[in-house]
């Protein structure tokens, strides 16, 4: 047995907190590491000790193995838990941890190295008898070799980074003409994200299920599986909704997939928590995709249906103890569903978002679990992955679990950066998902490249207007305590009306709010909407609108700006009443950065004639590359930044003089 009483968590955000909670429950001391951008983060305050390891960029902090090891030495940590992402699947880091006399809470460096290289892993899996997708995983990385292999495999094919995952360095290619550009972009993303530009090809299995098996091994050679998770609901190969068990897997298929996953783990003498991912066809045929040699983001759904704390099991195995359960001990009860709350803007093609969090309201309820790493007053940094929290629900049935997650989202609010909250609510309510039939093509087929919420209704504007006028009323009441409350908002002859003007769509929406004894009447055009505000706290409200009771959450950023979260939608409004109007310009010729990030390159020059839809620049944000396209045809008249420059959201990149 290897003894340690202090664990350093080499990560940040929700996974750092999740690992620390179990470690603390087991009586272990915890150490947090943090970048300068995370100095006030929740995981830093939660830990028993915390050490700053560098500036905000991950390459100078969370990916700096030397500084992490120095932090362990300073604090007396005997073990390091890498979480997921960052250095969690870095074999050199695992070796360095062991070389420093510390325990790496994860598999051996050799297992990480083999399974981290998709080409090597696939060759080993074929040898071990694990079903694999036809493809090319050779060492010859010449573009012509890839073309020849793709023609032999047959299009469509998937270009994938041999190292890493998470959808980075991955491109779906339908024709030979698309292959050169796909290889170039995939190599650049792979090199930036994983430090290796080695690629592989695989036959594209279109719209399969993405089903993964949780495995666990100990130093005695025992390997077992804890069932499957269905991760089919993905966007651009990034998982969005996960569940256990899979609606498409029966006990016989679970056993076959479980045995294949165990064979994969045993092929590398696997110790610790790992996940073997498969593509599952409707016929029941399945193919090895990859093995993640770490704890997965979606591990909570397995914990909720098996009752096994996977982090506690990791700590047990890392200390040299054998697994304290057998395959026959693993039982599944009920169903669990997890959704990932991202800081991203679904209306803008799901572009990552960043900035201060004005309000994070965390839901609670029976069967609900929230794994988060954010808080009101915190900041979403452009330097790190945009996933902020996970809402997980358990139920005796799949439908009960779905309803609990849905209600949890409806009772939550994230104001500040754009988020995918409303998109998740909509996705959970789609018939295809409700019926358990979603495949990997579900999001693309249902939503395309973006999610457009319903247009703001008169009721939405009425709710906002009543909240706005109530907040103004309360401010006036505080400023004039000597005036009786019943006199505020009244003239000598009749109640006065307050006017709120919101910009919504093409035309402004004017809301006239008249207070009455029992509430207010909001006039919007010819519509008369009766609203009674029954309860208003610091963040929550309840009202009756046209006879229907509605509850929600709100936050006032300023006298004019208000954010509102209703059960099925969230939005921000701005009161423009009394503000002068200027002639609006189209602004299409001004190309600005859609988010915080680094300008990787410019594809045009001053004086160049360009066409609408032409690529202008590439912006890197949150470890992904985003192409910026021309909205108009014309001539580039000026360019502001240089390649490599850091950009803030809204910064001018270039200007186009439109064709007449």
User: Could you describe the largest sheet, including whether it forms a barrel?
Assistant: 8 strands, antiparallel
Q: Kindly name the structural category.
A: alpha+beta
Mean pLDDT: 91
Name of the top-level CATH class of the largest domain:
Alpha Beta
Looking at CATH, the homologous superfamily of the largest domain is ATP-grasp fold, B domain
Describe the structure.
It is a single chain. This protein has 660 residues and is α+β, with helices and mostly antiparallel strands. The protein has six domains: 6-105, Rossmann fold (3-Layer(aba) Sandwich); 108-132 and 211-320, ATP-grasp fold, B domain (D-amino Acid Aminotransferase, Chain A, domain 1, 2-Layer Sandwich); 134-203, Dna Ligase, domain 1 (2-Layer Sandwich); 334-453, ATP-grasp fold, B domain (D-amino Acid Aminotransferase, Chain A, domain 1); 458-574, Glycoprotein, Type 4 Pilin (2-Layer Sandwich); 590-658, RNA polymerase II/Efflux pump adaptor protein, barrel-sandwich hybrid domain (OB fold (Dihydrolipoamide Acetyltransferase, E2P)), CATH 2.40.50. It has 16 helices and 39 strands. The strands form nine sheets. Strands 14-13-10-11-12-15-22-20 form an eight-stranded antiparallel beta sheet, with helices on both faces. An eight-stranded antiparallel beta sheet has the order 24-25-26-27-28-29-30-31, with helices on both faces. The protein starts with 5 loop residues before the first strand and ends with a strand. Residues 580-586 have low confidence and may be disordered.
